[in-house]
Amino acid sequence: MHLDCDVAVVGSGAGGSAAADALARAGHDVLVLEMGERQEPSTFTQREEDMLPRLFQDAGARTTLDGAITVMQGKGLGGSTLHNLNLCKRVDDTLLDRWAEDRGLPDLPSRLQAAYAKVESDLEVVDVSDAQLNRNNRLFRSGVQSLGWANGRLKHNRKGCIGSGFCELGCAYDAKMNAARVLLPRAERAGARLMTGVRVERVLHRFGRVTGLSAVTSDGRVRIEARAVVLAASATGSPALLLASGLGDAHRQVGAHLHIHPGGTVGGTFRDVVDGWKGVPQGWECTEHLDPVKGGCWLVPVFGHPVTTAAMLPGLGADHTRMMGRYRHLAALTTMLHDHSSGRVLADRKGRPMIRYRLGPRDRAHMAEGLVAGARILLAAGADEVVLPMAQPIRVRIAPELDDLDLSVRRLDPALAAVHPMGSLRMGSDPRSSACDGEGRLHGTRGLVVADGSLMPSSTGGPPQLTIYALGRLVGESLAERL
Amino acid sequence: MERRAFLKLGVLGTSGALVLGAVPALGTDEQRVVEALAAAIFAGVPLGELDVVGAYERSLAVLPRSVRWQARGLMRALEWEPVLRYGARFSRLTPSDRQAFLTGMATSSLYSRRLMVHGAKQLLAMATYQQEPAWKLMGYDGPLL
Q1: Is A65 within 8 Å of A81 (Cβ atoms)?
Q2: Contact A306 B129 (CB under 8 A)
Q3: CB count in 10 Å sphere of residue A166
Q4: Among partner residues B106, B121, B143, which is closest to A47 by beta-carbon distance?
Q5: Segment B94-112, tens digit of pLDDT
Q6: What is the DSSP string of A376-428?
Q7: For A91, which DSSP code?
Q8: Over pLDDT 70: what percentage of chain A?
Q9: Engineered SS bond to A334: which of A175, A263, A389, A433, CB 3.0-4.6 Å?
Q10: Residues of B in Cβ contact (< 8 Å) with A46
Q11: What is the pTM of this model?
């Protein structure tokens, strides 16, 4: 099969959808290519064994190369916006200024703020209301506030939410104001074509100029000719595709500087029922241990359905089962690293991503501090017992027991999961230290821009979804003007 | 160097890339290992009411082929690992020896050993806790739909 278009967009998540929407509305002939399938919310079953394979790369089985950290990444038309928890938070101004200074992008903060405003309007971003805070979140808020720690309400992009709590398995009620509900339909109305089940294997190029893509579908091979390509296949998929295509690696910047926000989970049991899986999963945050520039941990409530909870809770045997038996009384939070450790995305022979990543000593120390802080929050909220998720679980009943605790974090001790890969094609004016420029153009290559979380100049230290939408919009609008 | 690079199992598996053929169905011995590991890792769950092996096979079927091979290797490795220390394969150990063996592996100073137990737990969590009798134990009321 042979297809032509002005712009081929690889990936339909937050960045790809925002770029495609901007380009299509500017009058360009846009073709969006998504490796996953179109997912109808009415077919979401709210069962983990069905939805993890449908909505996640490698059926939820993706990990770092050494197997130590699970890396959850989405697929399907709408990408990770199908399964994410809809938190919308701008990058802190201090960090934006640091990005501008360090990466030689003086106008990035002002352009990003303008894009944030447009995206927030499109996605109808609002505060998580008091009524939407479930007991897990209210306990978290109570604990943080009684400790006097920096905390606040989060914003989200939901409309028509009934509080089912199955957000991470896809919203069967179509209440997520995400790429699939808002931006892709708008792009389609403006003329964009959406193709699913398309696996892009190579970016085609001649003499430094990108000419199109080579892809496969269940019907065979597809060749796409395009005036420009927008790469939005995620912070793992995009660099892997470039590496497989032999593009842009003169300074070994493609795939470098990967951050993933590894998170550990702390659980506590309460006398009264919590039913943490019901309602909006995340509505409150603690920023006491987070420095926007220096790093640290972002603390936020978290909860899982049975399979995820069983995998997440530490320990083995009867002790583990006893905690599972307290599921209705369990509250939990995640301590997510604003990681300064960085990894690298590599590509296998077929262009699929491989993630090399290890925590450095500074981040291991931050993780230990974050886990203890998480335990303090749950105890301050009234937990009978808190469990730190070490390979040999540590059970704590009163806060003073934490005072002399000297946690040593090593691989799989505790088990960590990451849901925010970013930075692997970072923006910057200098090709020696960045893969892309401030417009998302791959240094040294014509006809290709990047429009996903790969562009982040560093870890964001908070949920990156809104910034990825905003970067997608910036890149899309900028490309639309140049075409 | 990782002693068993094939044991990179995350929530359900790994991103390893092996070039291998079709993955055959579990044999009787492998089914016994899966049941023995589930009984030890999730001791106290009414496994008699669950079809752990069937759910395990269904869960594996949707994973990338390389991960399915790694899972096979993992189960075999865990079955034979105790022989030197306990004089018997894992599936033939007493329940208390199984617990002691797994706890020792999970807390080992060797990363590869911790990884083996972590991988098995992730795989078997999916096989065990997707089933309603396990939900009853938790008080989980299931999907709304």
Answers
A1: no
A2: yes
A3: 23
A4: B143
A5: 999 999 999 999 999 999 9
A6: HHHHHTT-SEEEE-SSS-EEESSTHHHHT-----BTTBS-EEE---B-TT-B-
A7: P
A8: 100
A9: A263
A10: 143-145
A11: 0.95
**Neighbour count for residue A33 (Cβ, 10 Å):** 29
Residues A160-190: pLDDT tens digits? Answer: 999 999 999 999 999 999 999 999 999 999 9
Instruction: Report, as an integer, the average pLDDT of A216-224.
Output: 96
pLDDT (tens digit, 9 = 90+) per residue, B55-106?
999 999 999 998 999 999 999 999 999 999 999 999 999 999 999 999 999 9
pLDDT score for A250: 85
- Chain A residue closest in CA terms to B138: A325
Q: Is the pLDDT of residue B8 over 70?
A: no
CB contact under 8 A, A317 and B12: no
Which residues of A have a catalytic role annotated?
420
A48-55 vs B52-61: helix crossing angle, rounded to 10: 10
Q: Which domains does chain A have, with CATH numbers?
A: 2-122+163-257+422-482 (3.50.50.60), 130-154+262-338+359-410 (no CATH)
- Is A59–B63 a contact, with Cβ atoms under 8 angstroms apart? yes
Amino acid type, A195: M
Helix (H) or strand (E) holding A311: helix A306-312
Report residue B19's pLDDT band, with 50, 70 and 90 as the boundaries. Answer: very low
Question: Which residue is closest to A392 within chain B, CA to CA?
Answer: B107
pLDDT band at B23 (very low <50, low <70, confident <90, very high): low
Q: Out of B13, B59, B139, whose CB is closest to A328?
A: B139
Distance CA B10, CA A306 (A): 16
Q: Per the CB < 8 Å rule, is B12 touching A65?
A: no
Mean pLDDT of chain A: 97
DSSP letter for A294, please.
T
Q: For chains A and B, what is the number of CB pairs under 8 angstroms?
A: 176
Distances (CA, A) of B107 to A70, B37, B47: 19, 17, 25
Q: What mean pLDDT is predicted for residues A368-380? A: 98
Q: For residue B126, list chain A residues with Cβ-Cβ distance below 8 A.
A: 48-49, 52, 307, 311
Give the HSE-up count for residue A262: Cα atoms under 13 Å, Cβ half-sphere. Answer: 31
C-alpha distance from B49 to closest chain A C-alpha (Å): 16
